[in-house]
Amino acid sequence: MKQFFAFLALAVVSLLLAQMSYSFDFGGLLEDLAKPKPQAPPERQRASPQEQPAEQDSGGLLGLGETLGIFDKKTSRILKKSVGAVQSFQPIGLKEEKTIGGSLALEVLNRFGGMYKNPALQNYVTLVGQSLAEVSDRPEIDYHFAILNTDNPNAFATPGGYVFLSVGLLRLLKNEAQLAGVLGHEVAHITQKHALQTLRRSKMLSGVSGLTMAALDKDEGLFDQVINEVSNILFTNGLDKDLEFEADKFGMEYAYRMGYHPAGLSEFIQTLEQSTSSETSIFFSTHPSPADRFQELSKILPQYKGVGLYPTLAKRYQSRIKGQL
C-alpha cells in the first residue's frame, strides 16, 4: 500500500512537470528580504512597583532546599538565577528563523554568483523540491528553491525554508532520484533545524537570554552577530558531522516517500568523490568525506525493502537539463 501511494505521488509530479505551468518569483522574495527591517516599537514604560507581579518562589528542589536549610539564602539566589537563565532561552520562533534565513539567503546569492536565470530549469527544480517538502517533517512552512550561477558544485540550506543548488552540481547529477536526494538533504537541514541547533550551542549566545524579533530589532549588533555566526557555520566551519549524517538519512527518506529510488543520494556522493571540480567546493569542504557519508548511507539502504521498481528517472532528468546548463 505504501508503495502504491509513493508511485501515485510521483505520478502527480510527472503530470505537473508535463504541464510545467508552475512559477515562482524568488527574486521578488529577496527584494522584500533586502528591505530595511521595521523599527522596533518604543519600549514600554517600566511598570510601577505596585503593578509588577510579586516574584514567584521557585518551589521544587530549590525551594525545598532553602526551607530545610540545605542552601543558604545567597546560594539559593544564585541557583535561582541560573535556572531562570536556562528557562528564559526559548526555542527560536518561525519569524526569527525566517528573518535569519532570509538574510543568509541574500548572502548566499552575493557569494555564489547570484541566480541562474533560466525559468524552465528553475521551475523543474522548484517542483521537485516542493514535492519533497510536502512529505518532509515540516510541510507547513514555505520553502523556496533557487539555482546558483556558479560552476562549483555547491548546495546550501538556510533556516526558514531557503534551498540553493548550483549549476555545477546539477551538471554532476545523473537522474532525478539523485536530484531528489540532494534536495532532500538540504530540506532535512531545515526540518531538523540543524543550523539553529548549532547556533544555540554557540559561545556567541552565552550571554543572550533569547532570540526574539524584539531583541533582534532592538539590538542591530546582536542581529549582525547572529548572521555572522550562522554564516561561519554554513560557509567556513560546517555543521557537526553527525548532523550531516542525519541530513543524509532524512534526505534519503524524503526521496523514498516521494517514490524515488532511495539510493539516489548515495550514488551522487560517489560521483562527488570522483569529481575533480569538487575540490574547490564548499559543499565538499564543510561536509564529512564522501567515503564516510557513503558508508553511513550504505548501512541504512538495506532497510528499504522492495524498492527495485522505484524509478531513478534518468531520461526525464537529462531531457529537462539538456541545453539548459
From TrEMBL:
Gene3D superfamilies: Metalloproteases ('zincins'), catalytic domain (3.30.2010.10). Signal peptide: none annotated. Residues 120-300 form the Peptidase M48 domain. Residues 35-62 are annotated as: Disordered. Keywords: Hydrolase, Metal-binding, Metalloprotease, Protease, Zinc. Pfam families: Peptidase_M48. Its cofactor is Zn(2+). GO terms for biological process: proteolysis involved in protein catabolic process. One of its GO terms (cellular component) is membrane. One of its GO terms (molecular function) is metalloendopeptidase activity. InterPro entries: Mito/Outer_Membr_Metalloprot, Peptidase_M48. PANTHER family: METALLOENDOPEPTIDASE OMA1, METALLOENDOPEPTIDASE OMA1, MITOCHONDRIAL. This is Peptidase M48 domain-containing protein. It comes from hydrothermal vent metagenome. The lineage of its organism: unclassified sequences, metagenomes, ecological metagenomes.
